[in-house]
Give the backbone structure.
Amino acid sequence: MSKKAVRRLWLVGLVLAVGCASAPIRKDDLAALAAADAQVLQGCYDCLLRARETYARVGVGQARPLVVQRLFETELLLATREKELALDWAGTLDRARTLAPELPPPVGADRLIALVDALPIEGPGTPGDAASAFRRAHATYASDAVGTRAWLETVPLTPAVHMTLRVALDCAYPPRADRGAGAPPARMVFEPPPVPEGAPPLVEYQVAMCRTTRTILEHVRERVPAFVEAQLGISRTMLATAQNDGAPGLRERLDELYARFPDSPAVTYLAGSYHQLVGDCREALRFYDATIAIVPRHENAMLGRTICLTYLSRNDEAIATATRMVEQRLARLDQAHYWLAWNHRVLKDLPRARTEIERAKSMALTGEIFTLAGMIEHDQDDLVPAERDLKGARDGAYGTRNCVAAWYLGLVKMKAEQWAESSTWFEQAMDCYAQNVAESRAGLEGIQRRENMEPEFKARQIANFEATLAEDQSQYYAAAFNAANQGARGGRIDRARELIEIAARDPALADLVRQLREILKVKAA
């Protein structure tokens, strides 16, 4: 079949409607309707808004029965798009409901509205508790989706609208194989469809959003320059690599999205995430604040705000934000308590820090939680739980390589006056920092060689690698000195002599090294 013939199939519903409407509709309005029909097939949000305006204007008097279904279909498409952008879709569906009584029974207007209403609201702009509550509220719809899918095939809709709704339904409630009575649970068999041959941008976009396919979304944008919201899906895929390469061009895409959809929490949250990932917390805060202003219970924006305020040393503000998360019982409470503990420790309020980290431990067991718990307990001279938590942080079940935990275990053993064990832990910390130094040096060299990176991000990453490298190198020498010092006190004189020569490479430790060398001479004598 030729491309021209395929396109004729996508247009058939609209062409027939225009033909039927030709008598009671003025000639000028016929041209406007044809333009509106084309805008629906183009599919962008602004295209649909313009089409709706035309249908509403023309669809009055005798022309009303011949235009109302197209107006109704456009409202459904707009509501679907508003859900993707985390915009308020309720008013759009309410307008669709007012149109339902005017449509013939075969259209099944109320059921179509229920279908769109049941499409999930998951995405970067939606709080986790809201998405979960929505799923629970529509739990029965999943079991009804098979019947809805079969019924949808019989509904006389414009072909492109029909395909768009079918893809949205399949993506939200994937078909499952029926294995019969007594069989194991049904397995998912749904695979997002390929783009149908000759499909208009409206359908191509819906398939691309289901498949999260950047190349298809970019093609949609090329076909329809006004399809700004296609940048949302593209940006989400690019964000996955932003920490590695700065995602060249992503900032411009997000800026364009924000200029058109400043009230979309999906857009503002993605922008905040991007700026945080590339190390610009001040700019990230602007977008996190915008997200929270729109969706006060957005736990990820609240958490991002807390972390950025912490890194900017705005500790009281970080505590206030994390406290709001706790008071509102948002998702990710373990992280809220973790950052409360972190900031209270920075402000030297150890009792509150201890309370918060204990709450975090009651909710999640992670290496970072165990590490901070051990640090706080060490600061409070509560050495038994400190040792337990710090060892837990290095346990294979909860942690990976953890230099900070090894360092603090050395401090714990030093406070306990277990000099040999303290020396051993500081040696482990030294080895750990040596690995960090090697990795940071390799990372820095790799970044310096790369050319396909966002320039500002590259400069910031180089600065970060250089700072981390210097810090880890300093910690390596300090761990060597501490291992030598505690080893000398614990009778490991020969090993202490070897370790002090490593520490001597750091000019900042020159005075301490000299003093310890004198002590070692006395002990050797």
